Amino acid sequence: QVQLVESGGGLVQPGGSLRLSCAASGFTLDYYAIGWFRQAPGKEREGVSCIESRDGVLYYADSVKGRFTISRDNIKNTVYLQMNSLKPEDSAVYYCATAQGERLCSEEYDYWGQGTQVTVSS
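and the corresponding structure tokens:
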């Protein structure tokens, strides 16, 4: 029932911006933790930004603070990741994931989207 579909990835130059979208279905977004994760070749998956609780506690990885912004639209049941000032090291497959109730970005999430590729290169 729970489905997540990411979109918005692509190729951008360093310093550019992208907005990723995660369309959720099969659950009420407000009752779930939801976040963005990424995995680059040869590296482990890392949490980028998460809405960890129903009341909107936010997490950002140190590497993206001040550059990325997570937001949600409960009417559209969609979560966004606005990515500004992109760096080559941001290149990765970005995944949207969710879990029932509260969940720290460092913990395991239960449902995952298919991922969208972000490549930052000149």
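(Above: one complete record from the training split.) Residues 19 and 82 are 4 Å apart (CA to CA).
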